[in-house]
């Protein structure tokens, strides 16, 4: 029986369902960011180098990227509710195994398992929410769900930093155990007898192999690019070629296969295509800054991981306050207007950072643009998700949600890699330019060295101090250039969303 034939969940059960599915999303998004700040601690404790430690993040990201797009196909074969409950239970088990890992090899294997089983959690929490909610309240459902996607990446670094500073790093993973078990119990209680229609389709082996190779190589290339010096590395070139060939072959194959592992035909829906493109491009730029700002604060301004997290945290305040309001009244406004407001506020906050991020910057200079950016975030997820999934039948919802979330996640990976690459690259350029200005023939240089000598510093100490200052300046200027570029992209980006066609919202 299709879930669309069940009467919508009402009353207290609806509250429990919303809480369970939002918590599931929160747990999974939290887990993709919480380990980042703890890598030096984990690597040190397990006797590995920091570069080996990054495989703790890479292994999760690769497995997760592969499993997200096949969620729709798995849901048809095993049922959405069953797949969601099994994935969450396995995620709890994998988290516990990660926490008790006594070697880097064991931790990486457990992170691969954790990433693979985590893939279906977000798309299914989204489709189960929409398919079991009363149609008139779906905007509210998406607003609450979106809020968890926004707030979790902010809590991740703060929580990860605090745990690794104060208690054993294993608790970064153990924290998922009680949350996951609560999610399973609540979801099973409400959804246990509301299973979606199951159809035993043959396995699209060719599509699956192409997907695993293409997405796996692409994610590895993005994660390891900076470490391997990008296209100066044979390994990165080989990964890129394999990824491109496999993904092109996958697209052609899936268009001709009767039971595709990834439903490419969804792109025939104009709103799905426009929504995916807008969300992916916006997420590419936005997630780059989510990674860049804490890096800048820690490397240049000397913030601890916890304080860098706290400086970024105000972005979550407005979404918490505004999401219920947007959820309740959003359907009365054209969704394209809300997205346009979001992109304009993003552009404003990136411009704001570009003109205020300087060597003498205070905590408030970081926190205020973050707080205002919360308005952009609040008007971002719910409207774009509504536009993307509008007009699709309930049986397509799991496939659409998994493809939409896969593209969003992949865009985030591209954005993170691109931003860090550009940042380090621009720092090197500015470092060279600034260093050229310091020479024996520059009277300002001569005066500075003389002043430092009078203060008791040797020429080597002065040169070392100057090199440090130049590096910091190079990083700040590089970051500001990225903020300028981000502001310009967001100013141009809102045009795409106006190609979407009303009405929005699913009335099935």
The biggest beta sheet, please? none
Gyration radius, in Å: 24 Å
Integer count of domains: 3
The fraction of residues assigned to DSSP E strands is under 5%
- Write the CATH homologous superfamily of the largest domain: MFS general substrate transporter like domains
Tally of extended strands? 0
Distance between the termini: 15 Å
| Proportion in helices | over 70%
Low-pLDDT parts are none
* Reported CATH architecture of the largest domain: Up-down Bundle
Order of helices and strands: HHHHHHHHHHHHHHHHHHHHHH
Structural class: mainly alpha
Q: Count helical runs.
A: 22
Task: Identify the overall geometry.
Answer: globular
User: What fold name stands as the CATH topology of the largest domain?
Assistant: Growth Hormone, Chain: A
Determine the mean pLDDT: 82
The CATH first-level class of the largest domain comes to Mainly Alpha
